[in-house]
Amino acid sequence: MRRLCLASAFGLLAVLAGCKASSPSKVERGVMRWTKHTVSVRNKSERNPLPPTSENIAAGKEAFSHYCVACHGMDGQNTGVPFADSMSPPVPMLNSSEVQSYTDGQLKWVIDNGIEPSGMPASKGILSDEEIWSTVLFIRHLPPAGSLGDPPMYSK
Amino acid sequence: MKAGIILRSIFVGCLAMGSLTLSGFSPVPDTPRRIEVSVKRFAYTPAEITLKKGEPVVLVLTTEDVAHGLKFKELNLNSKIDKGKPSELAFTPDKVGDFVGHCSVFCGSGHGSMTLTLHVTE
After folding, report:
1. Which top CATH class is B33-121?
2. Does pLDDT of A14 surpass 70?
């Protein structure tokens, strides 16, 4: 009986330790990056139907600034997002090679379906298809870090 | 002399009227058709409207909750619908087809699925 209690206590500790948000190791990051880019994130071949005009990029910026901004900042580079570095995995910089190396179709897929268990939510229905494609354009044309200030919800 | 001018004017007028009738011309109504549209999270009522090509129309958009918008990219139309006062979207459809409008002001979790479809017929 005593052994059973001890085993249960150790098991509980292990589970709780596993829940703690800590930075993933380099190996974990590498494995996850490979898995996402080549296996789990689909829609690699779909093309963006919207041309990269200034109007479409501005529409993407508008959609981004109402929704994505809470986690990615106004600039897509986490400026002013207080928890960006303390999430596990941390919120990625959208101008990083890790993100920019996805195809447009994959970025659309990520926004539509989210990435479990990273914290990235599925947004299909929350944003329209056109808003998501224009957001992809904005992600391809991000402004310099910090140039748009902090998200309104954190700066007031 | 004066009578000649009047006769010639009447003759030209008759010719013009005749050619318009033969070419299938139908006069455009003076007052545009007004259609009331009620808007709330996350739907437009009615959600589908049938219009005639060339018929002027005004969509009178009233929100029952928060600010919304209505955008038809293909028709180059966009209107913001503020709380407390109806917004009027006046236009004359110039092409036949089905056009899906979306809410253009972020309004919550179902924002992306808010649509109003215009069926424009000949």
Report:
1. mainly beta
2. no
